[in-house]
Amino acid sequence: MELFFFQLLNGLGLGVIYFLLSVGLTITFGLLNFVNFAHGAFYMVGAYVTFVIVSLTGNFWLALLIAPLVIGTLAIALEQSVVKFSYVLEHKYQILVTLGVALMLQELVIMIWGPIGKNVSPPSSLAGIIEIGDFIYPKYRAFVIAFSALIAIVVWWGLEKTKFGALVRAGSENAQMVGLLGVNITRLFSITFGLGGLLAGLAGVLAAPLRGADPFMGVEALGIAFIVVVIGGMGSFLGALVGGLVVGVMQSVMSSVWPEGASLMVYAAMAAVILSRPRGLFGRA
Amino acid sequence: MLELNSVNSFYGKSHILFDVNCTLKRGEVLAILGRNGAGKSTLLKSIMGLVDVRDGSIHFEGNELTNTTSHRIAHQGLCFVPENRDIFEILSVEENLYISHNPASNWSINDIYSLFPRLKERRKNGGGNLSGGEQQMLAIARALVNDPKMLILDEPTEGLAPVIVEEIEKIISNVRSTGIPILLVEQNISVCRKVADKFIVLEQGQVVLEGSNQDLSDQTEKIEHYLAV
Ligand SMILES: Nc1ncnc2c1ncn2[C@@H]1O[C@H](COP(=O)(O)OP(=O)(O)OP(=O)(O)O)[C@@H](O)[C@H]1O
Ligand SMILES: [Mg+2]
């Protein structure tokens, strides 16, 4: 029972990271109808930037502050230089273009740090465990859950309660009409893309002390993010949250019950959702 | 204020507008009439930068609008209410107004609510849950809070009940009295008689008739001939 609870919490922690990873992908898809295969690379580079900052300064908090900004800037630079020219292309070409970018980033990381992963240690203040009665849980994992939940609330607030968020939602329904209100839709696109990248980078920062940084984590993350988005529904914030938690908890709980079947179950869940609700749990028709 | 000089517009290879000229001054309402497919919406979209204008020029307060992006055109104060209203269905009524609201506008969101009490009642409703009349009100309201220097309305009374048509006529006269000019595509001659200062009739993308408000009554037969299917 306690093991189950432990795995459930681990799953939540994994799930909130998956949420951060996927929310940018789903919002940019909703707003731009753009398929970004470079999204996982933001996560991977986020983990490497964390590795660099932590090895140079020993300060994880600095990484938590700076790495997402670095990745957000990288995402905007990418949007301005490559992505914005492919909005008008068919999805298959968008995939080719962004897959190319993802592979370039991956190879670049391999050239600099080699193909073997790097370890990142959690900040010393979060190194131990917390005890609640008999129950013990790693401090860092508890921090990840709390911090990501906070970020999820901030993202929700930004989307639902601010003018910028209302414009993003309006733009995902009818971008042309948003432009007709005098809003620079091109700029709205690139800021949104940058914020989505920033959140994926943040997911990479939080994941680094849990699983290290390695060049192939981006590809893996991309796969997971797409599963989350398909389960939750393209373009939906709530979908990314629920989808992320479902996938995270499923993977974590399964890994102690039936490790070989963990991925299988996730794919089965995705298939079940596609069959019963082709637009995902919270997707709009 | 607005000046169109032999405008020629295209959708891809199809040439839709041919040498269209018209002008609009402060406080004027210009009605654009013409049968279905005559090019009325295309004319409005040409002004808003949504259609390819290959020849001719469009100026607003001396600024060239031709081949400018639509957000820049809108930013200059040309507020467009499209034919299908394009209300954001996933936003509430209030959010539809809020994202458009410009503090410089003569109309605050509260002014809108006293002008359209119905929108106030439904302010928490989703834009997708409104009736046709409410959607039209909201679309006009959304343009008014955007700080219009000019209002561009595409068939605002189409398919609406007579009481609502009257309400829209009132709003148009109200806006006109503040000095804001209005470009109005309207198939209903009686609405035009009540609100328009002058009119043009389009046929197959060309201006075939123009005149004053008086001519709308004097030349009814001629105009109806152009509108008849
Ligand atoms: N997106 C488009 N692509 C190609 N042709 C178009 C497009 N939109 C309109 N047209 C054509 O342009 C011509 C003018 O259309 P427009 O919509 O301007 O007519 P309208 O006068 O507004 O008609 P209605 O009264 O039905 O609204 C029509 O022949 C129409 O078929
Ligand atoms: Mg039309």
TrEMBL record, chain A:
Topology class, membrane: Multi-pass membrane protein
Subcellular localization: Cell membrane
TM regions (residue ranges): 12-35, 47-75, 95-116, 140-159, 188-210, 222-250, 256-275
Keyword Aminoacyl-tRNA synthetase among record annotations: no
Any one of the GO CC terms: plasma membrane
Annotated keywords: Amino-acid transport, Cell membrane, Membrane, Transmembrane, Transmembrane helix, Transport
One GO biological process term: amino acid transport
GO molecular function: transmembrane transporter activity
Family under the similarity heading: Belongs to the binding-protein-dependent transport system permease family. LivHM subfamily.
The protein's name: Amino acid/amide ABC transporter membrane protein 1, HAAT family
Protein's organism: Ruegeria halocynthiae
Lineage: Bacteria, Pseudomonadati, Pseudomonadota, Alphaproteobacteria, Rhodobacterales
From TrEMBL, chain B:
SMART domains per UniProt: AAA
SUPFAM superfamilies (alphabetical): P-loop containing nucleoside triphosphate hydrolases
Cell division keyword on record: no
PROSITE patterns assigned to the protein according to its UniProt record, in alphabetical order: ABC_TRANSPORTER_1, ABC_TRANSPORTER_2
Database matches in Pfam families: ABC_tran
Coiled coil residues, start to end: none
Molecular function via GO: ATP binding; ATP hydrolysis activity; branched-chain amino acid transmembrane transporter activity
Keywords: Amino-acid transport, ATP-binding, Nucleotide-binding, Transport
The ABC transporter domain, residue ranges: 2-229
GO terms of biological process kind: L-amino acid transport
Similarity-based family: Belongs to the ABC transporter superfamily.
Official protein name in the record: Amino acid/amide ABC transporter ATP-binding protein 2, HAAT family
Species this protein is from: Ruegeria halocynthiae
